[in-house]
Amino acid sequence: MKWRSLLFVPADSDRKFARAGTCGADALVLDLEDSVAPGCKEVAREAVKSFLGGATDRDWTFLVRINALGTGLTLADLAAVVRPGLDGILIPKVNGVEDIRQISHYVDVLEMAAGIPTGHVKLLAVVTETPAAMLGFAGYAAQGPGQVSRLAAMTWGAEDLSAAVGALTNKEPNGDWTFPYQVARAQCLFAANAAGVVALDTLYSDFRDQAGLAESCRVARRDGFAGRLAIHPDQVATINACFTPTETDLAHARRVVAAFASQPDAGVIGIEGRMYDIPHLIAAKRTLASAGE
Fold first, then answer.
1. What's the rounded Cα separation, in Å, for the pair 40 and 184?
2. EC number(s) of the enzyme (predicted)?
3. pLDDT digits (tens, 9 = 90+) for 90-145
4. Are 236 and 264 in contact (CB under 8 A)?
5. Which H or E run includes 152?
6. What does the alpha-carbon distance between residue 97 and residue 151 come to, in Å, rounded to a whole number?
7. Over the stretch 144-165, which tens digit does the pLDDT of each residue have?
8. SS3 for 14?
9. Residues sharing a CB contact under 8 Å with residue 81, sequence separation 6 or more, in sequence order
10. CA of 188: how far to CAs of 47, 114, 131, 142, in Å?
11. Is 209 known to sit in a ligand binding site?
């Protein structure tokens, strides 16, 4: 799976789904949660069933954001959408790794009932949307075979968290995150890497500000995020470009990998007057892996 761009699409909108499928996003996230009014949840579930049945010729990953545990809607969402064609579930408002384990157990049963190969449906988690979530990051380092092997990616969000703690705002006057939400972002990045899964940055809310989005993506990639969420189709091309290694990036990464391969016992290697050690090799391999090499 590619994880550069994950575009949210309201699950009850045929028109938006049709447009989203042609915008180049790596994944579409059909949303059963915040973008669907309470009275439209069942209609949205039926729409997702229809979309899953018809989306056979596609080059994007099919994800669904379900309603959070505790809403009383989670099992109905899962029962409706875990069927052939589904690639993953985005779980909002996760309080900790136990929530992910619980959803994983539900999906175990539903996959079997739907005739889906075991483990096909991956889980993505929004891990910073509740105060409790901010206290449980150490648990993700234990995920793996026998724990939550379905977990594929983690992302973060500030809006629900700031509402939960009563913050007046989560942004500085210049648009930067205030300190508590910088902490949330960093914790997500570290927890994802401790768990061995992909770290995805959150939404950039002003879809008209392409320059701001590009700069935000540059910073996200610099810091270690592999991609990000999108709220509008017009954001996808910018996000994809920013999270795709350039030919210069790839050529340098190949040079680093080749240099270490030629001297397998070396811990430090000089290339064109500059020293490279094992962390540089790891970074180079990640760059090549993000391009499918």
1. 32
2. 4.1.3.6
3. 999 999 999 999 999 999 999 999 999 999 999 999 999 999 999 999 888 865 54
4. no
5. strand 151-155
6. 10
7. 544 557 999 999 999 999 999 9
8. helix
9. 30, 32, 45, 48, 49, 52, 64, 66, 89
10. 32, 32, 14, 15
11. no
- H or E element that contains 234: none
What is the rounded distance in angstroms from the CA atom of residue 190 to the CA atom of residue 188?
6
Cα angle for residues 150, 233, 157 (degrees, 5° grid): 50
Nearest to 288 by CA among 269, 280, 197, 194: 280
For 201, the token pair is 């940055």
Residue 58, burial from CB neighbour count under 10 angstroms (0-12, 13-18, 19+): exposed
DSSP E strand boundaries for 50-144 = 61-65, 88-91, 122-126
Give ∠ CA 113-117-123 in degrees, rounded to 5. 90
The residues spanned by each domain of the chain are 5-244, 248-291
| CATH topology assigned to domain 5-244 | TIM Barrel (3.20.20)
pTM of the model: 0.89
DSSP 8-class letter at 274:
E
- 160 annotated as ligand-binding: yes
* Nearest by Cα to 194 from 101, 108, 107, 97: 97
Structure-block tokens of residue 220: 């996200």
- Is 65 annotated for ligand binding? yes
